[in-house]
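During the second year of the project, the team shifted from modelling isolated chains to modelling whole assemblies. The rationale, set out in the original proposal, was that interfaces cannot be judged from single-chain predictions alone. As a representative example for this report, we include one of the complexes processed in the last quarter. Its constituent sequences, exactly as entered into the pipeline, are reproduced here:
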Amino acid sequence: MSQIQLSGIAKSYNEQFVLHPITLTVEPGEILVVLGPSGCGKSTLLGIVAGLVEPSRGQVLFNGRSLAGVPAERRGIPMVFQDHLLFPGMTIAENIAFGLRARGVPRAERDDRVAAVLAAIQLASFGSRYPSELSGGQKQRVALARAIVLRPPLMLLDEPFSSLDSMLRREMRDLVLAMRREYGFSAIIVTHDPQEALELADRVAVMRAGRVEQVGTPEDIYFRPCNAFVARFLGPANIIASESGDLCVRPEAVQLALTGEGVTAHIVEKRFSGPRVEIVMETKVGHLSAIGPAHAYRGLEIGTHVYASWREQDAVFLRGT
Amino acid sequence: MKPRLVHFVLMVPALLLFAGLFGGGVVLALVRALGIYPAYGMVVPTLDFFVRATGSSWFLPSLALTARVATVSTIAAVMAGTGVAVGAALWIRPSWRLRIALQLPLYLPHLIVANMVLVVFSQSGLLPRLLFAFGWISEMSDAPPLIYDEQGFGIALGLALKEAPFVAVLVFPFAASVVSTYGRVARTLGARAPTLLLRIVLPMTWPAIATAAVITFAYGFSSFEIPYVLGRTYPRTLSNVAYDLYTSAEPMDRPEAMAMGIVIVLINAVLAVAYFASSRRYETLLHHMRVGQAA
Amino acid sequence: MNKMGAAVVSLILLVLAGPLLPLMLWSVANRWPWPRLLPETYSSRSWEFVLDRDSGFVIGLGWSFAIAAAVTVIALLVSLPIARVLGLYRFRGKSVIEVLVLLPLLMPAFVAAMGLHETFIHWGLTDTVSGVILIQLVPTMPYMVRTLSTGFTLIGTRLEDQARTLGAGSLRIAMSVTLPRLAHAMVAGSTFVFLASLGDYLLTVLVGGDAVPTLPLVLFPYIAAGDRPLAAVGSLLLALCPLATVLALESALANFSSMRANQEAKG
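Output from the structure prediction step:
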């Protein structure tokens, strides 16, 4: 049985639908990432699972039992927010112990569990400090710990790393995966960063304007996007129109050669970004991008005529819009 | 940011008003209280009037009454106002209608509030009539003398009714802000209403509550209209005494009235110090709120 | 809204509407002896008396309105500059000025009124409307300054600075950028000042005396004398103004805010 089942969840404010009926599942131990641009309703969806927002339609089932009428504080599903919201008047240890104390866990056990999770996030000696003394990354780690210490079966994370720089974000991603290995929770993570989604998720649900466009494993949605929106949201994509429909080819699958078969193109731009180079070309089917390591494109400059080709299995027909 | 000269110039009209009207007024009152009355040929400062004001037999009972009603009404107003503000923040969805409802009693003039208390709580008022209808009392004189009583209960009640909305209005924005941010996190961590209240909302809105309490006490201490309508002939609150002295036919009562006024000002000055001490934390709270709004 | 919310709302309504009900009953009561819960006979003569021009109530309301409006406008104009400086800038001596500005809030204004009385006599300000307006500024301006300066702090200067880099002049910036965003604080401050002035008794009677018969001054003797019906009518009259003003202003503000929010969402 799925751990979380959202069936027909919809939310409207004053006749305006923010979420159209959505059906999703999360399996035990799985990380589902809800990915989408700002305003697509992903945070509202999370709020409904948390119990902070009431759905206008549909129901949420937790291990088969409906959560209708169960307030957030009784669901046992902790949530980590983008602004860490550590309680300023309490020490780090007290912050982490908060949920345990609310549950009536006796002091000795509380202290043990807090110490254990502090060590796991590598802030072992920080217990008696106050949130104002910590850096942004440290605070977010504590926010995570505050939820993990409850050993919840499911955790919710709302853009938890958006306010951190890219290096910290990578560290936090590793931390979440490590914690999941150690404590075995499932999680619904909301983000607008496709890279985060691809790296963290077991499955991704891509949302747009209150609807789920596609659900699948990272490879699924990356290599077999169902429409142009999903394709482009996950990364640069070449969308080529043809009579049989729109074709999507990832730039890293495009091969360039000075001779041979393929689409004729001439290079209009060459962009260097460290480990890879992007070549933008003009062809009779429109602009085309190719991405590869720098050495693969040595000798290719702006104005060069090339032939672009790709393997058939790397091209996908987009079913929808 | 540092202001330029033009900014200082722009402040002048307001500063003139404050310094001139208020500062000047108090200084003049002090001068008169010290017995300097050129028109009557009195030019030597003296503390006689202060002695007369504070030494007479009615001073201490008046002081006690004033302090008592201020304290009681402040406690009641803070508890009620905070209760309503926090309750509204926790359980009612914010809307402009809610804000208005909280503010309305605030805007009722003192006279009206005094009259309302009179109409409901006096011995021939609505409350005794209800008690009679329930059979709990049989004569008008059996009704508890809530107004015109020695303890000043009626005054305290009137003051509390006027002040509680002020506390609620002051505390509500902070309570609402805390509930919508930290409150949400706490709820997902399993905190039920009592925990939310005691460990999150109250501690974090405490500076606002403290500031409101100080202002409320200062206000209750120097309030005039409500004690005037709801109080007895004796003892009267300090502000009422000062007014009576000032408007009496005896010209030499005037300096005594001023002395009384200065005494009230001094006591309020102590409270002002307390206010400024507590308001520093209030300002930090305001700053956090602003940052929270921006985020 | 759940049960607790309903309870809180009921409590608020009880405290608000509760006392008004007996006042309304008294205003239409002819005979209402103890221990009846409702008046024995009703009559409209109290209302007729009050609304009659000769009774002084309606004229008093007019006086009160006019004075309150004047006080509000003056307070607003004088407070805006200083509130701006206090809200946005830091400078040496700022705390001193802040204390000076806030002090009248905590101090009994009537002491200043007593002290100023003779000076006012000298300047011919006693028994005049101008005198009353001046003295009413004392307890009300601190509140206006405080509300406005908090408003300034909350809105910051980002938008104004941007407008300045686009070449807009100071006055233009003030009118089209700053003031609309300050609307909320201005309404809050103005409402308080207006209503504080409307309901004031002590300062008006000290400085204006019988020459400036605002509604509270007309009403007071009836309350003191225990004339319940007339006092009730006068009280309702005096109470209705704040209620109506606040409702009108706040709903206008709510519409204004949502209008601007829509504009900003589109823009």
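The interface with chain A takes residues 181-182, 184-192, 195, 199-200, 203-204, 295 of chain B (CB under 8 Å). Chain B has a mean pLDDT of 83.
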